[in-house]
Amino acid sequence: MGDYLPSKAILGKVMKNSASVMIPPHEMELHDRVATVTMTKLAELLLQTPEALVGRKVVAAIVMTDNNNNLSRVVSLGTGNRCVHGNKITEDGTVLHDSHAEILAKRGFKRYLYALLVHDPLCLLNKGEDEKFRFKPHITFHLYISVAPCGDGALFVPSDGTSGNGCRGDEHNPIFNKPQTQALMRAKQENGEGTVPIMVDEVGQTYDGIVHGGRLRIMSCSDKICMWNVVGLQGALLSQVFQPIYLKSITCGDLFNPGHLSRALCCRIDLKREPLSRSLPPGYRVNHPDFGVPKIQTTRGVEKARSYCMNWTMGDSEPEITDGSTGLTLKSIGKPEGPSRLCKRKLLWYHRSIISDKSTTMKTYKMYKLDADDYNLAKEAFRQRMMEQNYGSWIRMPQEMERFTG
Ligand SMILES: [Zn+2]
Ligand SMILES: [Zn+2]
């Protein structure tokens, strides 16, 4: 686990003259700060992880920054690069379908929001006139990813265009010089073996089809992050309680290219048409985050043979280890494999226990999602826009998988 020990990942980061000098994170430039707090948290979590499960990983984290004092903290972290095998899917919401690091970090972020609704010791939230919560203006959220997200953001070779150190959200300059391959939506492959394009006339997938050997198709992380830049990070259920929460920045440790990242994660939405923001419900917009690469050394490389994943949310006493190919927690001594704390069923349980009318016991997960009118309008406008631009059609999970109750 040498790559993750503080001695290498944290201490040897900033050099002044020939001597190594530790600069406190709050004095660092934003992308270094986001990377440093993520690497520090990762090192801490790996010390709590059985040695056999530690390896090179794709890492992602949502980092909260208090801009009054430049303090940053990891609120959720995920590692992994797998999707569930088609024959392991279930209808009861207990299985994680997508265990790519970014997706686990985002699911953990929802747990953080639920926890904050119960207890907000630092008074981070305000309630607006619409009765929805929003974070105070000095609180911002940032995404760290150890490598460019799978799909459109990672599909480039050096000759496709120049790279750079980063760009602010209002200075995006997307590279779009190969319309036949760039900007297309893509689906993940089950074994972490890259992504494949989705056709505009792609037919939906069915539950029986997948269970009986059909390939499960899940949208790439570039496509999902692109959608978060329209609908926010809070998801459908929490959109009833929170104003959309957008990423202020994205820090990418490896394969960083702002021209390709900006195309894949935000700018492709409006490449050929009028701004989508004009047709979104109040509070929603197309968000263009600041992009940057840390100067410090971070994790590199991935162990392709392993399907172990890890997740942690602020407040958890230890990381949870799951197997991305089963979508369940690992079997260990005295403990059978079981649902992750990030699975849809658990998130529905948090939702019902914290927010909802407890008497509506028969309401399904899907019904709760359908209640989120503005979120659904924004999501549909985004999907429609992607289709109109011939980037492909969004592949939905089979309906059977959202009919469970809490
Ligand atoms: Zn991915
Ligand atoms: Zn952009």
From TrEMBL:
Domain annotation A to I editase: ranges: 76-404
GO biological process per UniProt: adenosine to inosine editing; RNA processing
Highest taxon of source: Eukaryota
Gene Ontology cellular component list: cytoplasm; nucleolus
Single GO MF annotation: double-stranded RNA adenosine deaminase activity
PANTHER family hit by this protein: DOUBLE-STRANDED RNA-SPECIFIC ADENOSINE DEAMINASE, EUKARYOTE SPECIFIC DSRNA BINDING PROTEIN
Name of this chain's protein: A to I editase domain-containing protein
